[in-house]
Amino acid sequence: MNAASRLFSIFKLRIGMVITLSALAGLAVAPGPAPTAWQVLVLACAVLVSAASSGAFNQYYERDLDARMSRTRDRPFVTGAARPGAAWLVVIWGLLGLSVLAAALAINLWVALYIFLGSFTYAVIYTVWLKRRTWLNIVFGGFSGSFAVLAGAAVMGPEPAGAPLALAVALFFWTPPHFWSLAAALKVDYQAAGVPMLPVVVGPERAGRIILASTVLLVTVSLVPVLFGLGAIYLIGTVAGGAYFLWRSVELARDPTPRRAMVNFFASLVQLSLMLAAAMLDGWL
Length: 285
Prior knowledge:
Blueprint: H1 3-10, H2 13-29, H3 37-61, H4 63-66, H5 76-79, H6 86-106, H7 109-130, H8 137-141, H9 143-154, H10 162-185, H11 187-193, H12 198-202, H13 204-222, H14 232-254, H15 258-284
């Protein structure tokens, strides 16, 4: 793994880009005059950097768990390619402080607050407080994506309108079936690490039924923004993505195997991508 790949891994930039798209979707569906290009750029950079900060802290803090899981045992803090120490913590929290400060100075304090809350939720509430204690860990971790949507909407004003608020709720309900599908696919890993993810706690059959119920709830909630003014583009994209995710979740409930769970995990990414892309296109076109 070269230096660029190590940094990409440590800062979880793939997840960071999804969080950034969530913020841009929140901005797109918020009513008001078009933001300046400078505001959009600062928002995107601040959300990406704050997400990278919390992602790096997650890997730093969980290096003992990562060492016990086949999926994560090659991460830099496990292999020694990156050596844990005070310098890393300074970088991690410095990046968060920089992103929050930039948002506060260039946009407004509400955007900065939501960016901070999103990072704090993932790094502290999920990673430190809940992940090793309860299967509800990822339920509360879902607030991280919701805060990103609210950060984008706050560019237009402190009080979120109906559409971005409904989209933030949809992001909250997306996280459990998404991550539980991954946990079901990697159940052996989480058992080895002693992490009480839902499929470890309740078993694959019951987990498959819960994931399906969660997906039904998500798809239902994802349609609510239409009631607040989003139009045909959003409706088509969300229905298409939701139908695909539901189909795969039904298959998982019928055949709760690791292979089906991984397919459902990728279906959740398809659903989210279509929902966010449709929200941005609908809001800006």
